[in-house]
Fold this sequence. Notes:
Structural class: mainly alpha
Order of helices and strands: HHHH
Number of domains: 1
Radius of gyration: 13 Å
Distance between the termini: 37 Å
Number of strands: 0
Number of helices: 4
Largest sheet: none
Helix content: 40-55%
Amino acid sequence: MARRVIxxxxxxxxLPLMPAPKGRHGKDDRNFxxxxxxxxxxxxxxxxxxxxxxxxxxxxxxxxxxxxKRHMDEIFEALKKRWVPRISYD
Length: 90
């Protein structure tokens, strides 16, 4: 199983930023955000997404839709505050 990085505190901040559920989406928003974080952290291609996150193509298609609809903008802003650089190069 892939390591999870979204703590309960972070999730509480992200939850209001999630778009209203439409169709089947909604119950697995946290897992979806974890999948996106895994891709960003590892730099791996979508096809290498661990199966714990669901089918890579489904996750990618959802990510693509959310980016086009600009749902990810505020989510990334909130996540950016979570992952501040731990090393200063000054």
